[in-house]
Design a protein that fits this description.
This protein has about 130 residues and is mainly alpha-helical. The chain has two domains: about 70 residues, Arc Repressor Mutant, subunit A; about 35 residues, no CATH class. Helices cover about 65% and strands about 10% of the residues. It is elongated, with a radius of gyration of 18 Å.
């Protein structure tokens, strides 16, 4: 899945977001409606993006009365790949530097920090 995630463009990611939010296979009409509302894209752009996603193996199209599209690449796998890629490219492989940047940049609320502390305590007790 990492190979697939690496090939996803920003526009294709927006199509995937619609499919992930739906949590079920969708025909093109509701996909088109959501992307026209969000992005103002025309039908041919949306069809092109869906075709590309299918060619890359990120989306599957199954024919019923019309084509129904569902993501093969799940959100969690894409997020994991994106995070690793960001850490490698921007933080020279240091996840600690990423977290420090978030803390110093006031990107995390007190509640976020409390939840992270609890997660670290929980995960640390397994090691």
């Amino acid at each position: 899945m990492q190979d697939i995630a690496a090939k996803i463009s920003d526009s294709e990611l927006e199509v995937l977001e619609v499919l992930w939010e739906a949590e079920e296979a969708l025909p093109i009409a509701p996909i088109r409606k959501r992307l026209e509302e969000r992005r103002g894209w025309d039908s041919s752009t949306i069809k092109t993006l869906l075709r590309r996603l299918c060619e890359k193996g990120a989306v599957e199209a199954r024919r019923r009365e019309s084509f129904y599209y569902r993501p093969v690449l799940n959100r969690e796998d894409y997020q994991r790949w994106s995070t690793r890629s960001l850490i490698q490219r921007v933080y020279r492989g240091s996840a600690k530097d990423l977290v420090a940047s978030l803390v110093r940049g006031d990107q995390l609320t007190d509640q976020d920090l409390d939840e992270l502390r609890a997660l670290l305590d929980r995960e640390g007790s397994h090691g």
